[in-house]
Amino acid sequence: FKGSTSLKSVDFKAQEIEYNAFSNCSALENVKLETVKIISNNAFNNCCDLESIVIPNSVTSIGNNAFSCCYALESIVIPNGVTTINNGAFSECSSLSSIKLPESLTNLSQQWIFSECTSLKEVFFFAKTPPYIAYGMFRGLTPTIYVPKESLDVYKKALYWQDFDIQAIPY
């Protein structure tokens, strides 16, 4: 499918979306993934018109630049089960304004995961223990970080978290 200019929607059933599978599909707007466990590197890179994606609970890992340059993507919910989001996974998603990250997430150790997401205003972390994050994860951005109320002090003291405006999740 790589480079397709006519593909608008995908309902995908497989274990893994392979490297570059849908990259540069410039007309792709909607993606529904079923049974997928791994979203590989560059899977949806440069899908400029991608507006929405449903990521199933079966996904455990999101690869390098998997959704980078998806300029129309406005919000995304990462399901519980995802433990790792890799380098640049959502970089340059300039319309992305909100993201919800699950309790299962333990590793955001790669750089630039959300860099150049110029509309990103709020990020919700549901993990009670702060995931390890890399310096530069939000390069050039200052989103408000929302965390579980009982974990507020732990997040504020954790490595690399001190630079953010961290608040309790409003329930």
Question: What does this protein structure show overall?
Answer:
The protein has 171 residues and is mainly β. The chain has 1 helix and 14 strands. Strands 7-9-11-13-14 form a 5-stranded parallel sheet. Helix 1 links the parallel strand 13 and strand 14. The longest helix is centred in the last third of the chain and has 6 residues. It is globular. The model has no long low-confidence stretch (mean pLDDT 91).
**What is the overall shape?**
globular
Strand order, biggest sheet?
7-9-11-13-14
> Which structural class fits the helix and strand makeup?
mainly beta
Number of helices: 1
Instruction: Kindly report how far apart the N and C termini lie.
Output: 42 Å
β-strand number: 14
Order of helices and strands: EEEEEEEEEEEEEHE
Helix content: under 10%
Major sheet attributes: 5 strands, parallel
Low-confidence stretches: none
What is the residue-mean pLDDT, rounded to a whole number? 91
Using the CA coordinates, give the radius of gyration. 15 Å
Strand content: 25-35%
| Multimeric organization | single chain
Describe the structure in brief.
The chain has one helix at residues 152-157; strands spanning 9-13, 16-17, 30-34, 38-39, 52-54, 61-62, 75-77, 84-85, 98-101, 107-108, 122-125, 132-133, 144-147, 165-168. It is mainly β and 171 residues long.
Write the layout of secondary structure elements.
Blueprint: E1 9-13, E2 16-17, E3 30-34, E4 38-39, E5 52-54, E6 61-62, E7 75-77, E8 84-85, E9 98-101, E10 107-108, E11 122-125, E12 132-133, E13 144-147, H1 152-157, E14 165-168
Parallel strand pairs: 1-3, 2-4, 3-5, 4-6, 6-8, 7-9, 9-11, 10-12, 11-13, 13-14
